[in-house]
Write a structure and sequence with these properties.
Layout (H helix, E strand, L loop, with lengths): L3 E6 L6 H16 L3 E6 L14 E4 L7 H18 L4 E5 L1 H10 L5 E5 L9 H13 L2 E4 L2 H4 L4 H5 L1 E3 L18 E7 L8 H14 L4 E5 L5 H10 L6 E5 L4 H7 E6 L8 H8 L3 E5 L5 H4 L7 E3 L4 H13 L1 H11 L2 H4 L2 H17 L2
Length: about 350
């Protein structure tokens, strides 16, 4: 029987959740006969390439009234889910999960997923997240750690599936001569801890000025970070490169990748950097990195907000080429573990299991 699968998204801009959504839809389009549609709450183009078989229906709210905006989104979802005869709806984050639950047709199942560390949310948002998750017929977590932070009812109806390597460019990379570059990638906000990374790099720079730091991503803290770079006299050594579709090529050509986050869900940037064969240093934040990195083998873990230890580990990899090169080889083994076809087949099988539950 052909399924009508619908994803509800706020947007399809740059971001881990958006990349997962697009990649999963593309997998469904290429590997099944099911119809897959994305409902989204803006009319911007997708930041990631969508298969021609994936339909996208946009809704741009014209109301400045917050209550009316919510009502209009609800009507948009209800109308289109009925028209599409949806029998499976996938939503990430509590907002879209609630729209899915309240607007779904009869006999339609809703599967939710949380992509962040809910312990870092405000009490109101955390409670809304738990409430929305309870309304879902199934739930996908990225890590065991995040799963344990949710109510027992949600845990019982859930599965843990790690993020896939969704960026195909990773597999085309063949680097022989890496550059003296340290890379990082993510939204320029407090969560990603780029201020700590820049401070750590300042320590490194005083001992070894042959390296530069490239940070890929955009966000509200760009000016704050640029001011920090300038105040430390690093304007010739640190580049805020903005968001780039092909940033993975720069990461693959760099000798070290750093994830300096204060908290995470499951960091796609770290997964891609490892798969690209770059030696990685990551904070041991909640949640995700410790489920990807075996400390000292395929990467290094450090405490959160510890600029001195981060600088020490960067210098260690700079000064020990053989250790770094071995980490690169070990890190690349993640390609087999998190192969997109394997991961999205798990997603799909779980969807079918939830759909067939009475």
């Amino acid at each position: 029987m052909k399924n009508n699968i619908v994803l509800i998204m706020s947007t399809l801009g740059f971001g881990g959740a958006e990349r997962v959504a697009v990649s999963f839809c593309n997998w469904i389009a290429k590997n099944t006969n099911d119809k897959v549609t994305i409902l989204k709450f803006d009319n911007n183009e997708s930041a990631y390439e969508l298969d021609d078989k994936v339909a996208v229906i946009n809704f741009e709210n014209n109301s400045n009234n917050r209550i009316m905006a919510i009502i209009n989104r609800y009507k948009f979802c209800k109308k289109n889910l009925k028209k599409l005869n949806a029998n499976l709806v996938f939503a990430m984050f509590y907002q879209t999960e609630l729209y899915a639950f309240f607007s779904k047709p009869h006999n339609c199942k809703v599967i939710g997923s949380e992509r962040c560390n809910v312990l870092e949310l405000s009490r109101l948002k955390r409670n809304l997240t738990y409430y929305a998750a309870k309304k879902c017929d199934g739930f996908i977590f990225q890590t065991e750690g995040i799963k344990k932070t949710f109510p027992i009812k949600v845990q019982k109806n859930s599965i843990v599936i790690s993020n896939a390597i969704s960026n195909k460019k990773v597999y085309d990379i063949d680097v022989h001569n890496k550059e003296n570059v340290i890379t990082a990638m993510g939204r320029l906000n407090s969560q990603k801890g780029f201020d700590t990374l820049i401070k750590a790099f300042s320590i490194v720079n005083k001992k070894n000025s042959s390296y530069i730091l490239k940070i890929f991503g955009d966000g509200p803290d760009r000016n704050i970070l640029q001011n920090l770079i300038d105040s430390l006299g690093l304007h010739d050594y640190v580049q805020l490169c903005g968001a780039k579709n092909d940033a993975i090529s720069d990461i693959a050509n760099s000798k070290i990748f750093v994830l300096s986050s204060r908290y995470e869900g499951m960091p796609n940037a770290l997964i891609e950097a490892m798969a690209a064969g770059t030696a990685c240093i990551s904070t041991d934040c909640k949640f995700g990195p410790s489920e990807l990195i075996d400390d000292g083998k395929n990467g290094l873990l450090i405490p959160v907000d510890d600029a001195e230890t981060l600088a020490e580990k960067i210098l260690f990899l700079i000064e020990n080429d053989s250790v770094r090169e071995n980490m690169e080889k070990e890190a690349m083994k993640i390609r087999n573990k998190l192969d997109a076809n394997t991961i999205y087949k798990k997603y799909y099988d779980y969807f079918m299991g939830v759909k067939n539950e009475k």
